[in-house]
Design goal:
The complex is a heterodimer of chains A (about 140) and B (about 190). Chain A is mainly α and about 140 residues long. Chain A has five helices and no strands. In chain B, helix 1 (about 1-20) crosses helix 2 (about 25-45), helix 2 (about 25-45) runs antiparallel to helix 3 and helix 7 packs across helix 8 (about 160-190). Chain B has helices at about 1-20, 25-45, 50-65, 75-95, 120-130, 135-145, 150-155, 160-190. The termini of chain B are far apart. Chain B is an all-alpha fold and about 190 residues long. Chain B folds into two domains: about 1-95, Rna Polymerase Sigma Factor, Chain: A; about 115-190, Winged helix-like DNA-binding domain superfamily/Winged helix DNA-binding domain (Arc Repressor Mutant, subunit A). Chain B is elongated, with a radius of gyration of 19 Å. Chain B contains eight helices and no strands. The interface of A and B includes residues 17, 18, 24 and 29 of A.
């Protein structure tokens, strides 16, 4: 079946919305006016803000994607920072333990030195007491 | 004829100026002047009177809230076409849900007066409803509103060449759709 452009114009001729369209609309306008007066300004701004985004889904998706990317990058950087910080603390603890171990070793060596000196001293005294000859004692001393 | 057009333009300018100052009667005059255009775009696109009326009312409510941005009667027409087409395409993309309406609320149907075959017009409208959203809106802008490709491109934010090719493809699709419908009718009969 063929149709002309005039047929299409006829099929798409303007139609009237019918009686009462303007009255119904003006009633809604008055209602929205009353609601706007009753609502605080911040709520209106939020509504406009939301409707702006709802009419631009591509923008909303792009912004959400950017936010997710930023959160991802931020999260990754924070985890890297935490990891480095934990390593640094572990290294510091290890160094501290090493220093303490060295100090303990030095103290042990010093204690052994003192004990050795005391033992030598006691041994010499004991030998002197066992040999009463002064000459020999003096020679030995 | 030119005098009438100039007088009409002056009347609309005056109504717009008064509406900008918050005059509800002037706004109602603007609505009466443009309701046929807005409702028809929505009706031809959605093929549902109640949805079309809802959408037209939403468009005028948005106009009421943004009236201070309108600079002239021509800008008003352009703005209404643009907002209506955007809303129609959004509505078309959503799931088509039919809203029930009380019989007494429903507006009276308006009969088409013309010389063309009513069955052909009915089939044309049915075939139009099967076109994708953008194609459907291009056809409505061209044949309901009588806009040229450049004007359609401006309203629908498309390149002019895309409008031309879309229009060409839409007419071809409409012809194919009509032929298919005729074949279906023939098979049903024989």
């Amino acid at each position: 079946m063929h149709f002309s452009e005039d047929d299409l114009r006829e099929a798409l001729k303007r139609k009237d919305p019918g009686e009462g369209f303007t009255q119904r609309l003006m009633a809604r306008v008055n209602q929205s006016k009353a609601e706007a007066l009753a609502q605080p300004v911040t709520k209106k701004v939020n509504g406009k803000f939301l409707s702006w985004w709802m009419h631009r889904p591509a923008w909303a998706v792009a912004v959400v994607a950017m936010l997710l990317l930023a959160v991802g990058i931020g999260g990754y950087q924070y985890s890297e920072y935490r990891h480095a910080e934990e390593n640094r603390i572990a290294r510091m603890k290890q160094q501290q333990l090493q220093r303490e171990a060295e100090r303990a070793r030095d103290q042990a060596i010093m204690a052994l030195e003192i004990a050795r000196a005391k033992m030598n001293h006691v041994l010499q005294h004991a030998q002197l007491q066992a040999e009463p000859n002064d000459k020999i004692r003096r020679e030995r001393l | 004829m030119e005098q009438t057009a100039a007088f009409e333009d002056d009347r609309l300018k005056l109504a717009l100026t008064r509406a900008l100052t918050g005059d509800a009667q002037a706004f109602a005059d603007l609505v009466r002047e443009h309701q046929g255009m807005v409702f028809s775009i929505a009706y031809h696109f959605l093929q549902d009177r109640s949805l079309a009326e809802d959408l037209a009312q939403e468009v005028f409510l948005e106009l009421f809230q943004s009236i201070d941005r309108i600079q002239s009667p021509a800008h008003l027409t352009y703005w209404l076409r643009k907002v209506t087409s955007n809303r129609c395409i959004d509505q078309g993309r959503k799931k088509y849900r039919r809203r029930e309406m009380a019989l007494e609320e429903a507006p009276e149907p308006v009969t088409a007066s013309g010389h063309a075959d009513p069955m052909l017009l009915d089939r044309l409208q049915q075939s139009l409803a099967t076109l994708p959203e953008k194609q459907r809106m291009v056809v409505i802008m061209r044949f309901q509103e009588g806009l040229g490709p450049a004007e359609i491109a401006e309203v629908l934010e498309m390149p002019v060449n895309t409008v031309k090719s879309t229009l060409h493809r839409s007419l071809a699709d409409l012809r194919k759709g009509l032929t298919r419908k005729i074949r279906e009718v023939r098979y049903a009969f024989f």
